[in-house]
């Protein structure tokens, strides 16, 4: 394939300069707003910064959804892309029909790349105008279905379509508005494809160079956007972050640190900046400013790691089939521990998961084991909003992609599940999975999500013993971690 054809897979842009460090501008508010408008348009031209709005779920609708078991998303009204995202987060892979479609698209692209340049000249113009034309738009679906998913016939039909379209309409065939606008999901897919290309030994130097240019371009634009958002944030909301930049600039001010939060938030700069500022606020609240410039160890925890030693919250030794770490929360133990101890323990374990599994982009899976929790314990006691909610869901640079909750078969589990789900937004709500059937049913559901017995503790029918957990803690304490 020629370099020109390869270029069509990525949005065209000039070579990238080295990213300069952001400095606070000395301009008037009016000039600043004018510059901001231009910058935002530049950001949007490369990677949209707004996620598609989640489906609106009212409290009453949530009550109806909670009358069933399994993934909550199956009872929600989601767009196609929202459903694909939720499926990937829960099961660690795309839905089978989406996986099959993506493979068919790859086959069509291979056929197009082997066609003579003269046959695809018009198609090339269309792809230059919209690099996502054959990647994820409805355009290619029409041809694939019309040709019974025959890639060779689809490739010829697509090329012929654009050739005739240009002959009839001229340059208007490629004008703005005649093709669908790429959405957020399209941009994320392109970025992920580029990252995979960088590490694919079967790709040649030209493909890797184009992929690297796109990845660097996204990083540059998004890092600049985060810096601007932090600069415009009120002083009180970023006091801890600014202090951390003074105490440990090699961490808090580094691009690598910011990229952790961008990767975690799918490069939505607003969400990444908000999570990063929350991160430093939570770290200061939990451990104090003197801990800002170093990693937290077991000895730094207020209870000396007692909550972890009791098994209130545990990190499983292996990842699921998609490479995501698994954290198990024993609800009957966690509710008996002080809130700050649980928050510190969750902080410590998530940081350990990031350290060992590099899971900022893949995220993590959480299992709440409510097997030994009764109705009275859920109707009284502290509000779950005041426990480790901020740390678990909103502060650290690793998102909870799926939240499983295990109940005993009973008539009150919906009430308990509603209490759990009340502390999260709609996107996380669609990633909840309730398990309240028999052990056999639970394990069928776990296996479908890529969770096998060697990943779960013995009290849930898995193979991970409590002794292996305490041995792991002792080893980390011995190493000063």
What would you say this structure looks like, in words?
This is CRAL-TRIO domain-containing protein. Pfam families: CRAL_TRIO_2 (PF13716). This protein folds into 3 domains: 88 residues, no CATH class; 102 residues, no CATH class; 181 residues, 3-Layer(aba) Sandwich (Phosphatidylinositol Transfer Protein Sec14p), CATH 3.40.525. It contains 23 helices and 6 strands. It has a 6-stranded mixed sheet, with helices on both faces. Helix 2 runs antiparallel to helix 10, helix 7 packs across helix 8 and helix 17 packs parallel to helix 19.
Provide a short characterization of the protein structure:
The protein has 481 residues and is mainly alpha-helical. 53% of the residues lie in helices and 6% in strands.
CATH topology of the largest domain: Phosphatidylinositol Transfer Protein Sec14p
- What is the count of distinct domains? 3
Mean pLDDT, to the nearest integer, reads 79
Helix and strand sequence: HHHEHHHHHHHHHHHHEEHHEHHEHHEHH
Query: What summary fits the major beta sheet?
Result: 6 strands, mixed
Which percent band covers the strand fraction? 5-15%
What is the number of helical segments per DSSP (H or I, 4+ residues)? 23
Point out poorly predicted stretches: 1-68, 380-385
* Sheet with most strands: strand arrangement: 1-6-5-4-3-2
| Estimated structural class | mainly alpha
The overall strand count is: 6
CATH architecture of the largest domain: 3-Layer(aba) Sandwich
Whole-angstrom Rg: 25 Å
CATH class type of the largest domain: Alpha Beta
Query: Helicity level, as a percent range?
Result: 40-55%
Measured distance between first and last alpha carbons: 51 Å
Using the alpha-carbon principal axes, give the shape. globular
């Amino acid at each position: 394939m020629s370099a020109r054809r390869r270029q069509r897979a990525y949005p065209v842009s000039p070579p990238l300069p080295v990213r300069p460090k952001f400095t606070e501008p000395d301009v008037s508010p009016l000039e600043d707003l004018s510059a901001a408008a231009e910058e935002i348009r530049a950001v949007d031209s490369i990677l949209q910064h707004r996620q598609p709005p989640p489906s609106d779920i009212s409290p009453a609708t949530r009550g109806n959804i909670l009358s069933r078991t399994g993934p909550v998303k199956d009872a929600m009204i989601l767009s196609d892309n929202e459903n694909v995202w939720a499926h990937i987060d829960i099961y660690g892979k795309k839905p089978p029909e989406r996986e099959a479609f993506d493979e068919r698209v790859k086959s069509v692209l291979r056929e197009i790349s082997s066609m003579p340049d003269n046959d695809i000249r018009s198609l090339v113009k269309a792809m230059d105008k919209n690099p996502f034309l054959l990647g994820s738009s409805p355009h290619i679906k029409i041809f694939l279905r019309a040709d019974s998913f025959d890639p060779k016939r689809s490739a010829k039909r697509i090329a012929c379509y654009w050739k005739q379209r240009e002959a009839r309409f001229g340059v208007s065939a490629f004008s703005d508005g005649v093709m669908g606008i790429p959405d957020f999901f399209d941009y994320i897919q392109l970025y992920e494809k580029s990252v995979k290309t960088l590490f694919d030994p079967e790709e040649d130097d030209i493909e890797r160079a184009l992929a690297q240019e796109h990845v660097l371009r996204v990083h540059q634009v998004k890092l600049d956007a985060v810096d601007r958002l932090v600069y415009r944030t009120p002083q009180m909301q970023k006091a801890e972050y600014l202090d951390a930049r003074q105490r440990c600039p090699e961490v808090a001010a580094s691009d690598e640190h910011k990229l952790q939060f961008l990767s975690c938030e799918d490069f939505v700069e607003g969400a990444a900046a908000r999570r990063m500022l929350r991160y430093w606020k939570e770290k200061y609240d939990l451990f104090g400013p003197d801990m800002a410039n170093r990693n937290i160890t077991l000895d730094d925890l207020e209870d000396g790691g007692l909550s972890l030693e009791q098994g209130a919250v545990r990190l499983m030794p292996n990842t699921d089939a998609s490479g995501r770490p698994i954290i198990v929360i024993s609800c009957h133990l966690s509710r008996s521990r002080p809130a700050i101890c649980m928050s510190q323990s969750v902080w410590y374990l998530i940081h350990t998961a990031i350290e060992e599994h590099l899971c900022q982009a893949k995220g993590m899976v959480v299992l709440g084991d409510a097997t030994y929790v009764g109705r009275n314990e859920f109707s009284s006691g502290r509000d779950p909003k005041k426990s480790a909610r901020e740390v678990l869901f909103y502060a650290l640079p690793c998102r909870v992609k799926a939240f499983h909750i295990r109940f005993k078969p009973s008539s009150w589990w919906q009430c308990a599940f509603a209490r759990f789900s009340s502390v999260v937004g709609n996107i996380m709500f669609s990633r909840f999975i309730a398990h309240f059937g028999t052990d056999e049913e639970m394990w069928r559901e776990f296996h479908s999500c890529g969770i096998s017995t060697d990943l779960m503790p013995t009290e849930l029918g898995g193979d991970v013993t409590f002794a292996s957990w305490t041995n792991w803690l002792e080893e980390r304490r011995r190493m000063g971690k």
